[in-house]
């Protein structure tokens, strides 16, 4: 691997981790949802420091250039992260719908109780 490329990738990964930790500190990201991003960064650091880790498995699946393998690995991680985020959003959407339904039922019950109280005061 070209030393300039390795240095550039390590520098980009340092910026990546700084960005993640700043987002965590500002509470823009929850820790439990950030773990996948941290894991991805750690794997990428290991691949940049020890490129032979990925060279052998890539050759077995037919990828000759390791930079293409890095691109494929990044794409795989991004797809996994997108799927996990979609799952989280789906669960939150379902919880939001259930909460809205409960609020509507409570609101209906409050209106019915207000009618009963108003009827009792007018008598």
Describe the fold and architecture.
With 123 residues, this protein is mainly α. The protein has four helices and no strands. It has helices at 3-25, 31-49, 52-60, 66-122. Helix 1 packs antiparallel against helix 2 (31-49) and helix 2 (31-49) packs antiparallel against helix 4 (66-122). The N and C termini lie far apart (89 Å). The model has no long low-confidence stretch (mean pLDDT 88).
Keywords summarizing the entry:
mainly alpha
The proportion of residues in beta strands is under 5%
User: SSE order, as H and E?
Assistant: HHHH
The main pleated sheet reads as: none
What's the mean pLDDT score? 88
Q: What is the overall silhouette?
A: elongated
Helicity, as a percent range: over 70%
Put simply, the count of helices is 4
Distance between the termini: 89 Å
Radius of gyration: 26 Å
Structural class per helix/strand content? mainly alpha
Q: Tell me the total number of β-strands.
A: 0
The poorly predicted ranges are: none
